[in-house]
Fold this sequence. Notes:
By secondary structure, the chain is an alpha/beta fold. It is 58% helix and 10% strand. It has helices spanning 3-11, 13-45, 60-76, 80-91, 93-109, 115-127, 132-148, 154-170, 199-212, 229-240, 253-266, 283-301, 318-330, 349-357, 378-390; strands spanning 187-192, 217-222, 243-245, 271-276, 307-313, 335-339, 361-365, 373-375.
Amino acid sequence: MGFFDKWKEKWSSKKKEKEEKTTIEEEISSKDEKQVETVIQEERENEATSSISVPEKPDKDEHEQINIETEEKEQILPSTEEKEVKIYEKGLTKSRKSFISKLQDLTNKYKKIEATYFDELEEILIMADIGVETVMRFIDKLKKRVQDEKIESPLDLKEVIVDELFIIYVSGEVLSNKIEYSENGPTVLLFVGVNGVGKTTTIAKLAYRMKNEGKKVLLVAGDTFRAGAVMQLKNWSEKIGVDFYGKEEGVDPASVVFDGVTRGKSENYDVILIDTAGRLQNKDYLMRELEKINRVIQGIMGKEPNETLLVLDATTGQNGIAQAKSFKEIVKLTGIVLTKLDGTAKGGIVLAIKEEVGLPVKYIGLGEREEDLQVFDIEKYIYGLFKDFIGDEENE
Ligand SMILES: Nc1nc2c(ncn2[C@@H]2O[C@H](COP(=O)(O)OP(=O)(O)OP(=O)(O)O)[C@@H](O)[C@H]2O)c(=O)[nH]1
Ligand SMILES: [Mg+2]
């Protein structure tokens, strides 16, 4: 019984829909007979009380009705988790159509597992950006399982493949996707990464999420280098309705961060999100700049930023891994934001990051809308990727 069974049960859309329909029908019909009818009947008899008007003193029956309505709504409307699963599914479509359909073709091609099957599997996984070393280890493990468990057909290997890929992510060091919030005073999040990876839009999307959670958010324009970067962040702050602190282009970013974080602290912001310029071309310069920014934050807050998140563009594949390794040498990173997963057909990069960089992926970008920035969840990710590969067909 593998990892996938749990999520197949829970999230498989076909099964889910069927189950939901029956449950709702059953629930409604039983309520129709027992409760809803009575309540509606009584309400009808209750003079002049229309379904929209709010009586001054609601009686017991009306309370009951409200409860029933809420219950039914909860069953009909998708839960937040289901909505998130849909965003994962949609955002991973490209990868599913390419990488996963190749796995499917391979499974169909071989009646029996043989050496060339593994060669082809290896190639597919490497092409999916999983990373050569990880793939090698994975294939060795798979071969051993095939031998130990006497697996003969590629069909029987499907779930083993998914399980083993999942194990790559969850084994060894436990990587938490949780953001470290401060108990007292503002939580400071610093975003770093090379040009164009999606730092500024990630900050905007995250600020939007946090604002909707009721947090008081301040954006600080620490990228004073690129022309238009300050304005871009300011425009975002206006669009999403959060506060902004910035100075003109060319000003020392550490001085902007100093003033911004000072304001954030004195005005009791919950979260301060700091944008930076990612000039990796000049490592020494960038290192000094980020050190200075860190010193400034430490001076005001008495500690380092709660999180220093490296933003990586998933479509750059192994190049992104190289960026992560370089940034790790110059600044203390606490996690990764992996953007544009919707734009890659390779999807395996999350596993390579875990194996080769050793940092947790905290958020992923699955599209350009605000809700497309999702907290990274390995289970939803694996499900979103492999749902067609494992599928329900063998059970139906
Ligand atoms: N499809 C897709 N596009 C994204 C995602 N995240 C960011 N983008 C796009 O990527 C482009 C670059 O984003 P920016 O936020 O400006 O990147 P940046 O890292 O701040 O770039 P610089 O300020 O130049 O260093 C924009 O067009 C974004 O809309 C994502 O998850 N999916
Ligand atoms: Mg930017």
